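S., here's the first fold you wanted:
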Amino acid sequence: MRKLLAAAVCLAATATGCGATVESSPDAASPAVTLTNCGREVTYDKVPERVVTNDVGITELMFALGLEDRMAGFAMPDDKGDLGAVPWKDGYDKVKWLSKDQLTKENVLEADADLVFAGWNYGFREDGGFTPDALKKLGIPSYVLTESCRNGRTESARGIMPPLDALYADLTNLGKLFGVEKRAAALIDGFKKRIAEVRAKAPRGADRPSVFLYDSGQDTPFTSGRYAAPEQIITEAGGVNVMHDVADSWTTTGWETVVERDPDVIVICDYGDVGAEQKKKFLLSYAPLRDVSAVKHRRIVTLDYADLVESPRNPSAIARLGAYLRTVR
C-alpha cells in the first residue's frame, strides 16, 4: 500500500521530477533574493548550495522540489517511520544523514552549511543557543519553517497562518530562492487539486465528525491547535478539530478538556519509542476516557508523524483520513 501511495504522490507531482535537476534561475546576474519569512523580510545574497535541514517534513520539502543536490545533510531521529517507500527515497539515499538527534552548531559547521532550514521546536531552540540569530553571528543564514513561526500570543506559541497556507508559503519561497518557481507552483497546484477532490466528498454540516489529535503523553496529552498541520488535515478530510480554538500549533491540553469535547474520532500520531499500538491501548484503557465517543466505539485511526507535520505528505494524509471519516456515523 505504501508503494502505491508513494507512486501516486510522485505522479501527482511530476513537475517536481521527484529529484529532478534544478531549473536555471532567470535572474542569474542578480543572485540576491528577498523573501518574507515569519513576517519579516529576509535577504539571501546568493543561492544556497549546502543546505542543512532538520527533521523529516522539512527535509522532504527540499526533496519534493528536487533540491537534494543543494543539500549538505539533514538531522533526523530514526523513529519517524519507513523512509524506503516514500517518493523521495533517492533523496534520502543521496544526502548525508548528519545526526540522528538534532542539529547543532558543530554539525552545521562541519557540514560547511550555507543555509539552515529548520523551525522553532523543529531544530531551532533557545536552550543550547541554536537560533537563527546565533547562526547569523557565524555567517550562516537561516530559513524558518512557517508552521513554527512564533506568533507572540505567549512566549512559545507558534503559527501565524492556516497550516496549508504555511506549506504553500514555504514551497513558494523555496521555489523563488532556488530558482524553481515553476516546479513549486506545479507542486502546489497538484496538492490543491487533490485536496479539493477529498473536500468534495467530505461530510458536511452536522455530519462532520469531531476529531482529537493525540500525539503523546499520559498525564497531559500533546495535541494540535489550529496552526499545526493536523488542523487542516482534519478539516479538509471532513472533520472538526476539537482543539480549533487554541491559537497555537503543537501544544498541550488536559484530559478533562478531551472528555468535555467528546470527540467522535481520535487520530494517533505514530512515532517515537511509544508506538501507535501502545498509544491505542493506553487510550482504550484510560478510565477517564471510557465514555468518550471515540473510545467507546473504538474509532481510533493512525497517521505517521511525517503526515502530520508540515510536509509534502499532507495531501495524501488528508485523502486517507477523509476516506476513514466518511465511514463514521
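And the second, which I think is the more interesting of the pair:
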Amino acid sequence: MRQNRLGRSALTVSELAFGAAGIGNLFTPVTDDQAERAVTAAWDAGVRYFDTAPHYGLGLSERRLGAALRDCPRDEYLLSTKVGRLLEPADADGTDLAAGFAVPATHRRVWDFSADGVRRSLADSLERLGLDRIDVAYLHDPDDHAEQALDEAYPALERLRGEGVLGAIGVGMNQAEPLTRFVRDTDVDAVLLAGRYTLLDQRGLAGLLPLAADRGVGVVIGGVFNSGLLAAPRPGATFDYATAPDHLVARALALQTVCERHGVPLRAAALRFPFGHPAVASVLVGTRSAAEAEDAAALLHHPVPADLWAELRERGLLAPDVPTPARER
C-alpha cells in the first residue's frame, strides 16, 4: 500500500488508516478475538497507520489495539491517539451507550486541555496501549475548549515534540473552520477532519485544505461515508449520525447511479475522492472486523476512471473547482 509523508513531518502514513473506534465497541459489542482479527487483516492488507483515542470505549480501543499490535515491528507502523478527555473512575451502573459505546460505565470522561492533563492523558494511553511510544497526538474535539487547547495543551505537546517524545502534533475535529484556526495560529503537523471533505460535503475545501497545503500540514480525512449515506444510500440512511434529509438522499442516489454506470462501487469512489487534494495524506475508515478491513483495502484499490469524475462535474454533482484524483486506481 502506498505510503505518504504526513505534511512536513518526518512521518509517513499508509493511504488507508485503521480507525479503532469500532473495536472499542462503538454502538455494538466486538469480542477481543474479533478486534485482533480486524487489526491483523488490516496489517495483512498493507495498512500501517492506526488511530485510536481514550474516548473510544473508555479505553477499550487503546487496550485492544495495543494488544493486537504488540508483536508487529514497531518501526513499521504509525500510531496516533488523542488528548483532551481524561478517564476518571466512576461507580455508575449500566453502560456507556449514551456516549455511543457498548461498554460498562466504569469511568467518566473529564474534559482537560491543561498541560498537566495532556501529560497525564498520554501517560495513561501508553499504559493502556502497552507500547513504547505514541507517534502522533491529536487534540481531540477542542470545539468548546479552543482557548485552553491553544494556550495550554498545544504548547505542552510542542515541548514533547521538541524533546522527541512525539513525532507529530495534530488536531482532530468534525468542523473545518475551527481546524483552520489551529493551522493558521500554531505549528501543528496534521489535522484529522471528519465528514467535511467527502463526495457530499466539501466544506473543508473553502479554507482549511488550501491553507494546510500552503503551510505543509498533512490532512487525514475521516468519515468519508458520512456515517452511512455514502455507503448505502436510501431513505432513512444516516448522515452525520442523524437521519439524512431527502435532498441529500437524492444526491447520494444520483452519485451512486453515475458510479454504477462506470462499474465503480459508490464506496470506492467515496474512499478515493479525498486524494484529489494534494494536502490529503490518508483516509481513515472505522473498522470492527476482518471482513471490513479487507473490504476497505479492496475499495481503496478499485479502479476509478477519470471519466467518472468528469461526469460528476457535468451533472453538477461536483463543482468545477473541486479537485479529483488525477489518475485511475
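Why I say that: The first strand starts at residue 3 and ends at 5. The chain has ten helices and 14 strands.

Talk tomorrow,
H.
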